[in-house]
Write a structure and sequence with these properties.
Largest sheet of chain B: 2 strands, antiparallel
Low-confidence stretches of chain B: none
Shape of chain A: elongated
Helix content of chain A: over 70%
Largest interface: A-B, 43 and 53 residues
Strand order of the largest sheet of chain B: 1-2
Oligomer: heterodimer
Mean pLDDT of chain A: 88
Order of helices and strands of chain B: HHHHEEHHHHHHHHH
Order of helices and strands of chain A: HHHHHHHHHHHH
Structural class of chain B: mainly alpha
Chain lengths: 279, 323
Amino acid sequence: MSAFWSRFRQNRGAVIGLVILAIVIICAIAAPFLFPRSPWSMVQRPFLPPFEMEGLPLGTDALGRDVLSGLFHGARVSLLVGLVSTVVALAIGIPIGALAGYYGGLVDDALMRFTEFFQTIPSFALAIVLLAIFQPTLAYVILAIAIVSWPPVARLVRGEVLSLRNREFVEAATLSGQSNLRIILRQVLPNALPPIIVLASLMVATAILLESSLSFLGLGDPNVMSWGYMIGAARTVLRTAWWLSFIPGVAILLTVLSLNLIGEGLNDALNPRLRKRTS
Amino acid sequence: MLGFIAARLVKAVFILLAILVLNFVLIHAAPGDPAAVMAGEAGAADEKFLQDLRERFGLDQPFTVQLWNYMKGAIQLDLGYSYRQQMPVAELIWDRLPATLLLTATAFVISIVIGVAAGVLAAQTQGTWWDTLISSLALLFYATPLFWVALMASLLFSVWLGWLPGFGYQTIGANYTGIDRVLDIGKHLILPATTLGLFFTAIYMRMTRASMLEVSRLDFVKTARAKGLRNSVIQRRHVLRNALLPVITLAGLQAGQIVGGAVLTETVFAWPGIGRLMFEAISQRDYNVILGVFFISAAMVLLFNLITDILYGIVDPRIRLTK
């Protein structure tokens, strides 16, 4: 663990990413304490510019809602959707990839054709279709994002399992009479973990981008304040109040950037061989 | 080579059929009885009228028969009827498709050309500030929400600087003809195409850079150097040509995302393509149009994939032998 940390720390970008992400997480946790009022409630006159009134450092939006409060509450939604949808996508992708890689043959063929199908259909368009048909509640938003983001997991896990299944320690486990399920769970998957962790960190970033895009189009949960919604609502007043679109966008950009940086740091720290090769 | 193309074609057809089945299932998962929705549009919802509608559109038939009729219709490009727009969906899409094809193809070309050129430059200047600049930009573009950068670009270049139009496909009421019209459309195209391609530009930058550096270490490059070839020749003929292979694979996979991203770009820039059509259909809950656009964009992606597969087969003969 300390070796991992010292390698992770060597990547300056990753450390910066970690700091930014920590700030976003703190904002998300602090939101209900710092802004106990609903971010939807009107607090002042509409279109109050930033830095003009004490207590409202980022001003108000077209309906007089506190922009800073929206930003803090939006952090909760972004992180929640990013994290949970990634966990769900892993829960779909890991079993499919592991079964395909471990059993090979027909099972592999069938599962990989299935995966390929999902990889071919334009993912963003599928997410739109799913949310337009089912009600856009937070749960469905998470599910829709998970449904369009699991295929890369399945492919990665399949590749890892394929390369691990003929190694001696797996043969030893087979000879000692362990069941297939136990071998997959206890022997193969733990060894495939490092690349999965790296991919997962990047998937959280992509999920946050997806969620904001869907909310921007009006396909987010209408009851939760999110960064994408804030930009979508401010779009019509872009000429007169550009900061209302600008500010939440910066929040998305920084959060996604921090996760990408962390992903790269994890990649360097978990695959020391790769690091030597590419730098 | 012909066998290779045929195999890919068969696969594409199967995926297309699977998408149709998925589409059909989704239509039936949509909330509400389609007949009730139609009757609502017509403003008359008595039971007799509902029954007439069900019979007329075959909604009273068994599921499998409906599926068969739907597939038969879709193959003939009958994608249903938009009751909101009072027009067949296929016609709506057909009108808007050229604009989307122009936008996505331009974005695709821009992202590959800029991305590969910048990636090559970064790889050749590895460790200098050029490399740092390009790599940082790639990291930044990669994290930028597409719809936001589109908004900011239209604000900066159209509203504030007034350099480029930020709205629509051509100047309304100008009635340009010939070369003037082409230039006018070209001007309108710059902002949407560049912003749509930005994310992919970032991907190609990083990919090309990494791939160039990786290939540079291979033995055949050492051989070429030992042979006394000039560096520019080595880079062009040996390194770049091999480094581009993974970039081509990636380009095929990204095609789908460009088509999906068009919904956002077209919405922001009021570009009259199928993406904007989809956005309008979302707010009106016009399911036939949403699913029709989904089907056509999936078909477009399949076509792009097929083209890149064949290109790959031509560039790298090993692929034809192994698959």
